[in-house]
Amino acid sequence: MAGPVDQTTVSAASPPHGHMAVNESCPYVSTLRENPLRIGISTRALFDLEEEHRVFKTEGVKAYASMQLAREDTVLGKGTGFEVVERLLALNQPGKVPFVEVILLSQNSPDLSLRAFKSIDRYKLGIKTGSFTSGRSLAPFVPAWGIDLFLSNEDADVKGAVEGGAAAARLGNVPKDRNETLAGEVRVAFDGDAVVFGPESDAVYKEQGLDAFLAHEVANADNPMARGPFGNFLHKLSALRQVYLTDADVSKVRIALVTARNAPAHERVVRTLRAWGTPADEAHFVGSRSKAPILRALGAHIFFDDQEKHVLGAATVVPAGHVPGPHDPAMPVIPAN
Predict the structure, then answer these.
(1) Which residue segments constitute the domains of the chain, with CATH numbers given?
(2) pLDDT tens-digit series, residues 17-55
(3) CA 138 to CA 296: how far, in whole Å?
(4) Which residues of 264-288 are buried (b: 16+ CB within 10 A; e: fewer)?
(5) What was the pLDDT predicted at 227?
(6) Which of 23, 85, 152, 189 could form an SS bridge with 256, CB 3.0 to 4.6 Å?
(7) For residues 35 and 99, what is the distance between their CA atoms, to the nearest angstrom?
(8) How many CB atoms lie within 10 A of CB 290?
(9) From CA 205, how far away is CA 196, in angstroms rounded?
(10) At 105, is the pLDDT very low, low, confident or very high (cuts 50, 70, 90)?
(11) Cβ 43 vs Cβ 49: under 8 Å
């Protein structure tokens, strides 16, 4: 895990991305340089610290600190959030104001920060800033840094970040069965309701049933849905997509929607994204089928869903994050027809 950054394989069927330059005429170039996409990530989400975390849980903070200090010069392995962070940072142009910033957030003490930054340097990640809180909750520092997306392994910090106005997700383990994907490209996949979109349609289903939900969605197909917890992040990611968009309508940033909705409830999804000006490169309306095979075929570098069962299934094949939702995580939000 401590070796050089992995090289990816380019499929003969994949479009060439190496030549993609920044579209300097895109208005979002200046917008993102003034206010970049900011990702906050915990050390345990960025790096593989599971062994150290077990020591912390079973033996306490002193044993944990001793282990970290003893391993200060040992490069950390890659965690669940490593690949998407690495790929997003690679979109920045050398010597220019970045489009993407990543801030490291850790409950470690400042004295234990050296190992993390040495590992960052070893992997040549462009992460220069961070907060180390000596056990204090990270949640207050998410809005303080102006973070758009926060990734962590801790429920409390994720929920606190959501309360602070950021998109946030709790990451699972590093997937063991990964497809290699095109170098120079980042693929982000989202669930729809209660993630990108608001939970209002779900409320119709809960209160009135499936037939009423379908009738509601058909009747409101032309009415854009409200933004959900990841709506603002999607807008900013879409702006980054447009910065690299070519005349052939291909970008280094690829956005996908993987949702349990199916026809006829699909139309409102498409029309909402159109109204928002945030078109998806791919949409998969899977109904009652498992999302994992679709996500594996897609080669997502991260997937966000508010249902625990979908996250657990997806996490076997792609990095996946659980988004806190307003409902029972065991119950389907939008059932298949």
Answers:
(1) 28-171 (3.40.50.1000), 186-322 (3.40.50.1000)
(2) 445 789 999 999 999 999 999 999 999 999 998 778 788
(3) 32
(4) ebbebbebbbeebebebbebbbbee
(5) 96
(6) 189
(7) 8
(8) 12
(9) 18
(10) very high
(11) yes
Catalytic residue flag (residue 191): yes
Residue 269 predicted with pLDDT over 90: yes
- Tokens representing residue 93 in the block: 């142009």
Which structure tokens are listed for 40? 């906050």
Please state whether beta strands 37-42 and 320-322 pair in parallel, antiparallel, or not at all (unpaired).
unpaired
